Amino acid sequence: MEENGTRGLLVDFGGVLTTNIWKSFDLFCESEGLEKGTVLELFRGDGEALALLRALERGAVSDEEFERDFGELLGVDPPGLIDRLFAGLEPETAMIGAVERARAAGIRTGLISNSWGTGIYERAPMRIFDATVISGDVGLHKPQPEIYELGAQRIGVAPAECVFVDDLRENVAGAEAVGMRAILHRSPTETIAELERALAIELG
Q1: Torsion, Cα of 13, 14, 15, 16 (10° steps)
Q2: Among 151, 148, 201, 203, which residue's Cα sits nearest to residue 178?
């Protein structure tokens, strides 16, 4: 910790502390009778869908408004849509344990998450964090620079002394833009190994 000056660990929730989000979306598609990849392609190719997601992340629309409008775009029933999209998520216990051990070793820990409504955080292990930044609560979303700076501020560590973990390249790039060391999460084994190097502590 003292050797490299890294004193803070900031992580994403969905896809880092949980199993893969896109796999959950594909399970949703299967259960709803949609073609695999429909949700991902909608966000990639439909500006209205992406704008709707960004509005939800910032807290500019309610869960119910998002479900109504996104359900219409998908052609599925709106009630409970967010819960159905994330029904396939499971806790990524290795990553949760690594964050817990980092905190026990004296690293300040924080969550920076683009929110998909309020219910998803009922399953989040909030006990392992010194502070949290949920996009819908603060009116910002990754990869806006201000949300990373706020995360660092809330754990009391300068951005340059933080390492950030996310499963999306654009969010990793956003953290790097404010001076953080960032890790693109692809598997717990790889990420934990990178975190051990970044933090100079054992997390296994």
Answers
A1: 10
A2: 148
User: 162 has which bridge partners?
Assistant: 8
d(CA 53, CA 95): 26
- The phi and psi torsions of 27 (rounded to 5 degrees) equal -65, -40
Q: What is the pLDDT of residues 42-87, one digit of tens each?
A: 999 889 999 999 999 999 999 999 999 999 999 999 999 999 999 9
The domain tally of the chain equals 2
Domain boundary among 32, 52, 85: 85
Which tens digit of pLDDT belongs to each residue from 144-174? 999 999 999 999 999 999 999 999 999 999 9
pTM for the whole thing?
0.92
Q: Which domain holds residue 181?
A: 8-19+90-199
